[in-house]
Structure formats: structure tokens, C-alpha cells
Design a protein that fits this description.
heterotrimer, A alpha+beta (about 400), B mainly alpha (about 525), C alpha+beta (about 190), B: mainly alpha, two-stranded antiparallel sheet, about 65% helix, C: alpha+beta, 5-stranded mixed β-sheet, 4-stranded antiparallel β-sheet, about 20% helix
Chain lengths: ~400, ~525, ~190
């Protein structure tokens, strides 16, 4: 039997006896650890975000960061205590030093202490945790609502506009297959770049309504402190508000199938003026697409547009050169070299029960016309026929 | 029984028809080691692909099959059966019983496993590939969007669940009814205690897992809509059912490990366990708490704030009994006479690394912080600290500790220590950097990553190859011991070993305690 | 304690098998229904009741206006054009409101759809009452034809004052293959 005090007295007495030799052992043991940590810090190039959670750009992400640091430090201190006692035992209470083992066991006092003290520490963690959580669960009205829909494997953003048309677009991975498959050098934002980023105004409360089209995804932008699951059939909400303009990058966090690792999120926070300019442009663009729908394109124009659409939407499954992959090859395929109407139908409505999605609702009629034309006239498919936007529109109408 | 009082039968029929707890334990241990190698091989594929940014070796679709099979095989094929094997070998010997209570069922519960895992592994060669939806198989990715092999996966889960339930019933029946006279509950070795509690957990939650996969089966083939919103179901329901099983499951894996460590640390400290009673109560509290914390795996699904708070507080509470355990082990070492044979080294490794895993677990329990940690590599690092450094290290310690008793030969100590140090360094090199990349924003289960994560991923992969290679040394050491190790005949083997299994001759005869041993009523417990 | 057998092992095994069977049944007869009840009651996932609200509306709370926003999502493989006719409405709690969603089936064949409602913030779900909704039933639509689908709802006067916007989202699923299935049977 021993008491709490006795344990401490022993520690104290034995610490005083700590010999030079033991100090050297300690240094030797600590050396590599410090070296490793120093090396890691160096590897990070001084940028804290590579080793630790980024404090982020919003009050919420910063309070989460502080909470994280508080718990981390508490754990570190407890860890040093526990491992210190253990290390001391390992050094001084070894049989090879000729010690005789003590026989003490069970001490109600000690056992109560090490139950109650951790409990108090937990309470000290629970208090800030609760207040941060309540901050995150805030239902004050937002100034801007954006519907975020997860697709296999891209995101769709829809700006819910009370006055006028909603602005809608898809945001696809922009990193080309050639970088992923190591044919070209990887760019600075490899896998974290999209064709169209989400643009939001600074100093504005933005609410994200998050849902999914197929399987569960999760919309995560570390610097905004937002991670919310996108669940098919259900809607979740999250919000952010930041005064720091900049580009924030994130990724899908929930395994959602083959290209789970290839559906990044890029959020561009801009000034309110810039935002309204951008929104106006987007609306004008939508009007432009409407105008283009009535236009007739030349083969070259269609091929040029079609190539871009193909690389963005088709190449991941059908191969950058139409050689196939998860999807069938386009080069020489019976669809791309067969009946035009059937080809259009597959592009617009997909093939149910396969990975071939219905792109009719994902790309506009100009893009559809271009990509179908491209598929029929590239990769050695020389059909020579063309699809115009009006044909797509008519096909959709039936 | 006809074979009673005889040695083992000869040839293959000995293993096929055996009802001997030692034979069955041996088979479980070898089987789980084979699965450990297979699951480890899949992990090597994963780490090789992640060695550098860009896709080099495998396609993303196959990568997902590798992570899924790695998880399933390690959890259900390697860790769980290994502890069942240990229980088979040790529980009868520790409580003074001649065998398990249900020897025939014992044979069945083992022999249904190998074909099941063969079936699971064979899905790799099926049309559409192996299961690719992660070991947590969230609907609808695992239902509407699953490859055809999902049906075989469901069947496998049913069978291995059945095997686990049969094994647990056997263990409970043995512990409750077969103890030698005088072996009261509070005299049982802690390994027996932790297994008894684990077995109750298994009986309670394996049927829940069976229920979850049955619902999947019905959704896929019989037109129900448990998990599909289209028919009025809810994919989130799947997560609730799964984690209602899944959280107790992680304690099913770790509690027997606690038992092993509680046997080995006192032996090499030459000092009794500090707080036996509090260890038993702590184990029971952890088991109880495991039923009311499941939704901490689902903080981001959009729960009401009251739910988040409840699950956060309940989860944080687990730190208390877990702390009690760690403090107990450390205090047991305090002022002992320590020696550092391989089993002790692995236990100390366990103690340090499991504690780190416990700290990250506490961090993950904090709901608002979890919004950043969830589904990142931080989680991957956390659960490998508890699964590998927790369960696998303690299992390795157990093999080194009891191997001389099992085969009457001593393993090569230098090789064992080398195995420990390579494992320890390899493990930390693999998983410590994963904390960093996770915090910096790398999601889990991705086959390729942004350039800023490249350095740590390369370190991680190198560590994984080192850790993987060190297991070959382990295999070699075990085989060399069995074939040509230095004979030991001392029943006690280790100076500080306590317990009934150390009173029988070394190597342990085929039948032990056919007449129950006398338990010294003065002896408190081992 | 009940004993099932004089043999203690048989007794233990019988009890444990009973526990295992009970836990398997627990998933189906307790967890699933309990989850659905809790979801309806607490609005977990923003689920709303699948049945028409029949209570008599109380007085209209003219002191405040709540914005109700409508959002539509097509689930994968659902080619219909589907959306609200108005994207948002300002309503008084207690008042009965009407709106329509439009749907068009562009395919040449008849299809059946099921719309699944979900409300955000989830806390508002229990205060949002639908007296008439196209989501109560599966909606068949002939090939290449359109339909207007009515929705009538009341926002409860008890709606917490801090909630000023309610988003009602419909996800539309193609249930042609499972038409007449479990939901229709309800």
C-alpha cells in the first residue's frame, strides 16, 4: 500500500539522485526526436499549415483552431507527465540495477485522484468546445444562399437569387489527365484547381445548403472551417463569413466512389463590388448562351469548343484520347460512329445503371452540340457530321 | 470422447476434426497471421501508390478496392481472430478448465472462417471488382452504387459474424461454467476478464452488423428502401446502425489487448498489477460507454445541436476509464524491477503509442474540432495508433510471451528485440506524419494528393515498407523457434510470470487440468 | 434468474443465443422505427411528416414574416425538368399558402417520380406543415408531357423567432421501376 504523497516523495528523492549518466541517456533519447521535429518544421518551409490545422479565415475556423490548440497542449502536458514517470521507471527501476521490486498495489486515494482530476480536465475542455459548437449552430439569416450539390465527381453551385434567375454552374477538376498520369509536370495547385470556382463576397454571411445527386459526399474547405456531408435526398446547411479576400481550396471528404480524390473545391472570396460584377457577368453569360443556342457554328468552332468540354467532362472515364478507361472507348465506338440521334440521346440522358450520367442537365446545349460533334470527328472517328445547339434543344424537346 | 486421454490424431484429420482448444487456438493464430500478411500486402499497394503524387501503379477504382479489403481483412480477418485464438489457448489454462465448454462448436466457428475470407478475397477477380466502398460501407455507395460482388461481401459478413458470435458464446460459457473450484470472478486473470466483457459486447453487436448488412441485401435485391431516400428510407440510418455496431467493435478489438498488457507488464515488472479491481471496473465502464457514443463518427451528417453535445460529452467521458488503465500500467512499472525482454518492449511500445492514440481520440471527440479532423488523415493516424500500436503490438507481445509455453522452445531474443525496434520505428515513421497531413487538410481514402502533402506521404510510405518488412523477421523468428529454438522446461518460463498457465509443464501438454487445480484461497489474483 | 436447463453450459448458451437473436430483431423492430419516429419528431435530417397535416389552423401571426425558399434537386438518372414556380415566398406563420412546382418528362416513355422533401434548418421541420403535397404520392407522368404539382403549407405560429428563413428542398427520384413498391403501399 502506498499513498499519493509517498509516490511524490519517492519521485522527488530519486530525481535528486539523477546521475549525469542518466542525463546523457535522456539527451541521447531526445536528440533524434528533436531532430525529427526540426526536420519536419524545415520541410514545411516555415508555413505552419503543412504541419498543423490552418487557423483559417473566418471567426469560426479561428475559434476551432484555438480549441484544437488548447486540447493539443493539455494532451501534451499530460503526455509528458505520464511518459516522464514511465521513462523514469524504465531508467531507474530496472532489474539490472539490482533493485528489489516494491510490492505495493491498490490505493483508494490515488485511484480517486486519477479519476477525479481527468474528469475536471475534461470539463475544462468541454466548456470552450460547447461554446464554439453553439457558434457554429447559428441560424441567423444569411445574405446569400448557395445550393451546393455533390455529384460523382464534381460540385454544382446554384446561387439562390430572390430577384431573377438563379446562377448555376458545375465546378470540375481542372488538372489535366496528363499531369495526373505523370506525362507532364504537376502545376502548383495540382488536384486543387477547378474550371469554375465558387465566388462569394467578403464580409457577407453566406449560407451553404448542401445536398447530393447520387451518393454521400462531404463539402470541406479547411480555411472556412466548413465540413458538411452532402446526402442524397436530404439537405444540410452550413455557413461562413470572412473579411479576408483570397482563394481557399478544399476537397470532398467522404468516400464517394472512383474519383473521390478528384473533386476539389475552390472558393474565391472577393470584395462585394467585385462579386456583384462577377454575378452580372455570369448572368450575361447565361443570356449569351441563350443567344448562342440560336446560332449556327462551323465545324472548326464546334471542334474547338468540343475538345474543351470533352477534356473537362468526358476524359476522366473515356480517356484523354478517347481510348477508354472506366467508360467505353470513344475512338471507333459504335455510338460515336453510329446513329446521331442515339449518340445525342446517350449524351443527354445517360445510360441508366452505368457510370454514364445524363449530361443534359449538366452542360448547356452549345456544349452538348460541340462535344457530340467532337466525339464524332476526333480520335480517328471521321463521321463528318455536325450537331448544332438547336438540334440538341429539339432533341431534348423530343 | 474417444480421443480423450490420447495425444493428437495424426495428419490432416487432426486439424480438420480437432476439438482441442490448443489446436483450435493454434489454427486461429496461424489463420489470422496469414490474413495479417494479406491485409498488409494490400496496405503496401496503397502506400506504394501514395509514395508520390500522381497515379503510378494502380487505377483509382482498384485503389478503393485495396483500401476496402485492407480494412475488412485487418479488422475481421487478422485482429479479431487472433485474439480469439489467444483466448482459445489461454482461457482454459488460466481458469483451470480442461477445454472450452463447447469444443465441437469451437471447431465449426474456426473452420467457417477460411472459406469466407477466400470468398471475400476472390471478389477481386469478379466482374466489377471487389467491394470498393470502404470498410464502413456507407449506403448508397454500398447499395445502389455497389459492384455486383457486394452480395458476396454481405454473405461473408454474415458468416464471419456467425463465427464471432459462436466463438463468444463459447468463451462466455467457458468462463461462467468451467472455472476450477475456488477460481472466483475476482480471482480471474485480467485477460480472462477483458475477454469475458469483449465476448458480451460481441454477442450484443455482431447481430446488429448482421442486421445492417441484411437491410443492405434487402435494399439491393428485394426492393425495400431502408437506406434509399427514394422509397422513404434514409442513408444516414445506415450510419447509425453501422456505428451502433462499429463503436463497440473498436473496443472488442482493444479490450483483449488491454488484458494481454495487464498480464505482461506485471510479469516483467516483477510486481503485482497496481489496481486489479479498478482495472475490471474500468473495462466494464468502457464497454458500457461504447453503446452510447456511436454518433461521434457522424458529427458532420447534420445532427441537431443537442445530439452533438450529448455524443461529445459521452465520448469525452471514455477518457476517464481509459486514463485509469494507463495510470495503472505506469504505476505497476513504478518501483518494480523491470527487465526488457521482447514481450515487455512491445507492451511499453503499446503503452506509449496507445496513449498517443488515446489523446488524438480525445481530440476527435470534440465536435467542433472534429469538423476539421473528420475524414482526414488525422483520423487515419488516430485509429492506426490504437489498432496497430494497440491491438497488433499487444498481440505480438502475447505471442513472444506465451510462445515458449506453447512449444517448449525459446525464441531468439536478439531477433525479437530487433523486430520490436524496426516495428516501432517503422510504425511511427508511417503514422506520425499522417497527423500532419491530416491537419493540413488531406482527406482520407484518396489515391492521389496535392503537392504540399508529398514529403510526409513519402515518409509514410517508407515507414510502411519498413514496418511491413519487419513482420517477415517475426514470422522467421516464430518458425525458427518452433523448429529449432532452445528448449525450455521450466513451467514458469519467465521469472515474474503469474497464473495457472505457468503451473503446467512446458511445453503445455495436449490436455491440461483434466483434474481441476487447487486454487490457493489466500492468493489474491494473478 | 430463469434457468433453461439443469446443465449450466446449456443454460448459458440458450440465454446467449436468445440475446443474439434479440439483438438482430432489435435492429428491425426497434432501431429503424425508433429512428424514423425521432427523425419526424425532432426533424433530424430536416425530414418532415409524410402525411397531410390536418389540424385546424390557428390565428395568423401577422407580426412577422418568414421567408420560405424552394429548392429542387434531381437525383442521378432523373431527366425531368423539375423546379418551383416561385423561388421564395414571404409568409405569415399560421397562414395557409399555396404554390406549385412544375415538372416535365422529356423522355418518350411514361415515368413515375417520387419527390422527397427536406427542410433546413432541421429545427424548423417540425413547424412546417404541409396540408397538400405532391410528395405524399408517387407522381406518374406520360412521356413528353408536363404537369403542375401543387403544394399547400402552413408555417406554425410556434416557429422559434430566430428562424427567419426556411428552405424547403425537394429531391426528385425516378421510381418507375419500384412504382407500387413500399412507399405506395403505405
Amino acid at each position: 500500500m502506498t499513498s499519493w504523497g509517498e509516490v511524490f516523495i519517492t519521485i522527488y528523492m530519486e530525481t535528486r539522485e539523477m546521475s549525469c549518466e542518466a542525463k546523457r541517456i535522456c539527451k541521447l533519447a531526445l536528440g533524434p526526436v528533436l531532430l525529427l521535429m526540426g526536420g519536419a518544421a524545415l520541410a514545411a518551409g516555415g508555413e505552419s499549415s503543412q504541419l498543423n490545422m490552418p487557423p483559417g479565415a473566418t471567426p469560426v475556423s479561428q475559434s476551432v483552431y484555438h480549441l484544437h490548440m488548447i486540447i493539443l497542449w493539455i494532451c501534451t502536458v499530460i503526455g509528458i507527465g505520464v511518459f516522464g514517470v514511465m521513462l523514469y521507471s524504465i531508467i531507474y527501476h530496472r532489474k539490472s540495477r539490482g533493485v528489489t521490486p516494491a510490492t505495493f498495489h491498490e490505493s483508494t486515494k490515488v485511484e480517486i485522484a486519477w479519476t477525479v482530476v481527468p474528469f475536471l480536465i475534461l470539463i475544462s475542455m468541454a466548456v470552450p468546445a460547447t461554446s464554439t459548437l453553439l457558434d457554429i449552430y447559428d441560424f441567423e439569416d444569411a445574405e446569400l444562399d448557395i445550393l451546393v450539390t455533390g455529384y460523382q465527381w464534381k460540385w454544382k453551385y446554384e446561387y439562390l437569387n430572390e430577384n431573377g434567375e438563379n446562377v448555376t454552374f458545375f465546378s470540375n477538376l481542372r488538372t489535366p489527365q496528363s499531369e495526373i498520369y505523370n506525362a507532364e509536370d504537376k502545376g502548383e495547385h495540382y488536384l486543387l484547381e477547378v474550371d469554375e470556382p465558387l465566388v462569394i463576397p467578403a464580409d457577407t454571411k453566406v449560407r451553404f445548403l448542401v445536398t447530393a445527386n447520387d451518393v454521400i459526399h462531404s463539402w470541406w474547405v479547411p480555411h472556412l472551417g466548413v465540413k458538411k456531408d452532402a446526402i442524397p435526398g436530404f439537405i444540410n446547411e452550413a455557413w461562413t463569413k470572412t473579411s479576408e479576400e483570397g482563394i481557399y481550396r478544399g476537397q470532398c471528404a467522404e468516400l464517394c466512389g472512383k474519383d473521390h480524390g478528384f473533386m476539389p473545391i475552390v472558393v474565391n472570396v472577393v470584395s462585394k463590388e467585385e462579386y456583384s460584377g462577377w454575378l452580372g457577368e455570369k448572368q450575361a453569360e447565361a443570356a449569351e448562351v441563350k443567344k448562342l443556342m440560336a446560332q449556327t457554328f462551323t465545324m472548326d468552332e464546334l471542334m474547338e469548343r468540343g475538345k474543351a468540354v470533352y477534356q473537362r467532362n468526358c476524359a476522366a472515364c473515356h480517356g484523354a484520347n478517347g481510348e477508354g478507361g472506366v467508360g467505353n472507348a470513344i475512338a471507333g465506338s459504335p455510338v460515336a460512329t453510329g446513329d446521331l440521334d442515339h449518340h445525342l440521346d446517350i449524351g443527354i440522358n445517360g445510360v441508366p445503371g452505368t457510370a454514364m450520367q445524363a449530361f443534359g442537365g449538366q452542360i448547356n446545349d452549345v456544349e452538348m452540340a460541340a462535344v457530340i460533334t467532337y466525339q464524332r470527328n476526333a480520335f480517328g472517328n471521321n463521321m463528318g457530321d455536325m450537331v448544332q445547339p438547336i438540334d440538341v434543344f429539339n432533341h431534348k424537346k423530343g | 470422447m474417444a480421443e480423450h486421454h490420447h495425444g493428437p490424431a495424426k495428419g490432416l484429420s487432426r486439424w480438420l476434426f480437432t476439438t482441442n482448444h490448443k489446436d483450435i487456438g493454434t489454427m486461429y493464430l496461424w489463420f489470422s497471421f496469414a490474413m495479417f500478411i494479406l491485409g498488409g500486402f494490400f496496405a503496401m499497394v496503397v502506400r506504394a501508390e501514395l509514395f508520390q503524387p500522381g497515379m503510378q501503379l494502380v487505377e483509382p477504382a482498384f485503389f478503393n478496392q485495396m483500401t476496402t479489403l485492407h480494412g475488412l481483412i485487418m479488422v475481421f480477418g487478422a485482429i479479431m481472430p487472433s485474439f480469439v485464438g489467444l483466448a482459445n489457448w489461454l482461457i482454459p489454462m488460466m481458469i483451470g478448465a480442461p477445454d472450452m465448454a463447447l469444443p465441437r462448436m469451437n471447431n465449426w466457428s474456426f473452420w467457417i472462417l477460411p472459406p469466407t475470407f477466400l470468398l471475400l478475397a476472390s471478389t477481386l477477380f469478379m466482374e466489377g471488382g471487389a467491394p470498393n466502398f470502404g470498410w464502413t460501407f456507407y449506403a448508397p455507395l454500398s447499395t445502389t452504387y455497389a459492384p455486383p460482388s457486394v452480395t458476396f461481401f454481405i454473405f461473408s459478413v454474415h458468416v464471419l459474424g456467425l463465427s464471432s458470435i459462436m466463438g463468444s458464446i463459447n468463451i462466455i460459457a467457458t468462463v461462467m461454467n468451467m472455472r476450477a473450484p475456488g477460481m472466483t470472478y475476482m480471482k480471474m486473470p485480467l485477460f480472462v476478464w477483458t475477454w469475458l466483457i469483449t465476448a458480451f459486447l460481441l454477442v450484443a453487436v455482431m447481430p446488429v452488423l448482421a442486421g445492417a448488412v441484411t437491410m443492405m441485401l434487402m435494399d439491393i435485391h428485394f426492393g425495400t428502401s431502408f437506406f434509399s431516400a427514394a422509397g422513404g428510407g434514409d442513408p444516414v440510418l445506415f450510419q447509425h446502425v453501422f456505428w451502433f455496431f462499429g463503436h463497440p467493435e473498436v473496443y472488442i478489438i482493444i479490450l483483449p489487448a488491454f488484458g494481454v498488457v495487464s498480464q505482461i507488464i506485471p510479469a516483467f515488472s516483477r510486481k503485482p498489477l497496481f489496481g486489479y479491481d479498478s482495472m475490471v471496473y474500468a473495462t466494464a465502464s468502457i464497454a458500457f460507454l461504447s453503446f452510447i457514443v456511436w454518433a461521434h463518427h457522424m458529427y458532420t451528417v447534420g445532427m441537431p445541436v443537442a445530439g452533438e453535445l450529448f455524443f461529445m460529452y459521452a465520448t469525452m467521458l471514455i477518457a476517464v476509464p481509459t486514463g485509469v488503465k494507463v495510470f495503472n500500467w505506469v504505476t505497476t512499472m513504478w518501483r518494480g524491477a523491470l527487465s526488457f525482454e521482447t514481450p515487455m518492449l512491445f507492451c511499453i511500445g503499446f503503452l506509449v503509442l496507445f496513449t498517443i492514440g488515446g489523446f488524438t481520440g480525445l481530440m476527435l471527440s470534440i465536435a467542433p474540432a472534429d469538423f476539421q479532423y473528420h475524414d482526414s488523415y488525422f483520423v487515419v493516424a488516430h485509429f492506426h495508433y490504437v489498432m496497430v500500436a494497440g491491438a497488433v503490438f499487444s498481440m505480438t507481445a502475447a505471442v513472444y510471451f506465451w510462445l515458449p509455453k506453447w512449444c517448449g522452445r525459446m525464441y531468439n531474443e536478439a531477433m525479437g528485440k530487433t523486430h520490436f525496434w524496426i516495428s516501432f520505428i517503422g510504425f511511427n515513421l508511417t503514422f506520425f506524419p499522417q497527423h500532419f497531413v491530416g491537419l493540413a487538410g488531406m482527406p482520407r481514402r484518396i489515391p492521389d494528393y496535392a503537392l504540399q502533402f508529398a514529403d510526409f506521404n513519402m515518409m509514410s510510405s517508407i515507414g510502411a515498407f519498413i514496418y511491413g518488412a519487419s513482420q517477415i523477421l517475426f514470422l522467421y523468428n516464430v518458425i525458427a523457434t518452433i523448429v529449432s529454438g532452445k528448449p525450455v522446461s521450466d513451467p514458469k518460463v519467465w521469472e515474474g510470470a503469474e497464473g495457472l498457465e505457468w503451473t503446467v509443464p512446458t511445453p503445455a501438454p495436449y490436455h491440461t487440468f483434466e483434474t481441476p487445480p487447487k486454487i490457493d484461497p489466500e492468493h489474491v489474483h494473478s | 434468474m430463469i434457468r433453461f436447463s439443469a446443465n449450466p453450459t446449456v443454460d448459458t448458451v440458450t440465454k446467449l443465443v436468445a440475446v443474439a437473436v434479440a439483438m438482430f430483431a432489435f435492429v428491425f423492430v426497434v432501431m429503424v422505427p425508433l429512428y424514423n419516429v425521432l427523425c419526424d419528431a425532432l426533424g433530424i435530417n430536416g425530414k418532415t411528416s409524410g402525411e397531410a397535416y390536418t389540424a385546424v389552423p390557428a390565428a395568423i401571426d401577422e407580426s412577422r414574416l418568414v421567408t420560405v425558399q424552394f429548392v429542387a434537386t434531381n437525383n442521378e438518372g432523373m431527366p425531368w425538368d423539375f423546379g418551383p414556380s416561385t423561388t421564395s415566398m414571404k409568409v405569415h406563420p399560421g397562414a395557409v399558402n399555396d404554390t406549385v412546382f412544375h415538372a416535365r418528362n422529356p423522355l418518350p416513355r411514361a415515368m413515375v417520380a417520387q419527390a422527397i422533401p427536406s427542410i433546413s434548418p432541421a429545427r424548423a421541420a417540425e413547424y412546417f406543415h404541409k396540408t397538400e403535397c405532391f410528395c405524399f404520392n408517387q407522381q406518374p407522368l406520360d412521356g413528353e408531357s408536363s404537369a403542375e404539382m401543387p403544394l399547400q403549407f402552413i408555417v406554425d405560429q410556434e416557429l422559434p423567432r430566430d428562424i427567419r428563413t426556411i428552405t424547403l428542398s425537394y429531391t426528385i427520384f425516378d421510381v418507375t421501376d419500384m412504382a407500387g413498391g413500399p412507399l405506395a403501399a403505405r
